Amino acid sequence: MPSIISIRGVSKTYASGLTALKSVNLDIHQGEILALLGPNGAGKTTLISIVCGIVNKSTGSVLVDGHDNVSDYRITRRLIGLVPQELHLSIFEKVWDTVRFSRQLYGKPHDDAYLEKILKQLSLWEKKDAKIMTLSGGMKRRVLIAKALAHEPRILFLDEPSAGVDVELRQDMWRVVRALRDTGVTIILTTHYIEEAEDLADRVGVINKGELILVEDKHALMDKLGQKQLTLELLKPLAKLPRKLAAYGLELAAQGKELVYRYDARNARHSMAEVLQALSAAKIAFGDLRTEQSTLEDIFMGLVKR
């Protein structure tokens, strides 16, 4: 899959001496949704701001569709739509006017039908003549998204787009995001709602203390790093494990009524089938079993702690 953004050796150290990014290398594929996860202050917003040309990098290079984002700034900026974390809007303007003006800023010809479509997708059409100051926080964030899409960018950055947005509005937003991806728009989002990354993203990147820890296909990441658990509900409680089962790493739980087997999908010492065979040989009967797997949030927290 071709890369639409290529980041090489990008670092950022501020005049105060704070290093926000440390030699980040990242290729973002055309038409994918990439979720960037990391705790507050990890460097997510700094990285986005550098790619968008808002913050100057200390070292490295950024290519957007093959164009350098410094020397070819006008070209690259037209390709990018940015929804920032902060709500920067002219509160006395009407929704329609601010979205229309955003399109004109990029020299795009008038296309009211396209702008109407965007506002309807974001459930803003009924508010098109309302002043920004009268809107709720969630609606204002939708206006930011409409402004970012007004010039029909090929790349969309969403920096914490769900902040202050209720569940219903959030679901509408993600429907728009999926529809954009289906038309070939590349989407990079940062979010604290990890379930959104788990639901939406094709790939996941984790940043911590300015370093890009990993970038991985979401499903491959969960297969490689996700811990699984097998829980067996015993027909008869056990006071302790038989000695012959010690090698399997089994644990008693629920006052001896349950037997738990935790394993890593990457390097499990024993398969589930082997464990069940060992239990059968030890004449331990169970009435029911259930399996559980780590969520993306579990994996993220484990990576950051490491």
Report on this structure:
33% of the residues lie in helices and 29% in strands. The chain is an alpha/beta fold and 306 residues long. It folds into 2 domains: 220 residues, 3-Layer(aba) Sandwich (Rossmann fold); 79 residues, 2-Layer Sandwich (Alpha-Beta Plaits), CATH 3.30.70. The longest helix is centred in the middle third of the chain and has 16 residues.
Key features of this structure:
14 strands, elongated, Rossmann fold, alpha/beta, 10 helices, four-stranded antiparallel sheet, Alpha-Beta Plaits
Q: What structural category characterises the helix and strand content? A: alpha/beta
CATH topology of the largest domain: Rossmann fold
Provide the CATH superfamily of the largest domain: P-loop containing nucleotide triphosphate hydrolases
Mean pLDDT across all amino acids? 84
Order of helices and strands: EEEHEEHEHHHEHEHEEHEEEHEH
Counting DSSP H or I runs of 4 or more residues, the number of helices is 10
CATH architecture level-2 label of the largest domain: 3-Layer(aba) Sandwich
Radius of gyration: 25 Å
Number of structurally distinct domains: 2
What is the name of the CATH class of the largest domain?
A: Alpha Beta
Beta-strand content bin: 25-35%
Poorly predicted tracts of residues? none
What profile does the largest beta sheet have? 6 strands, mixed
Fraction in helix: 25-40%
Distance between the termini: 31 Å
Any idea what the shape is? elongated
Strand order across the biggest sheet? 6-7-8-3-9-10
Q: How many strands?
A: 14
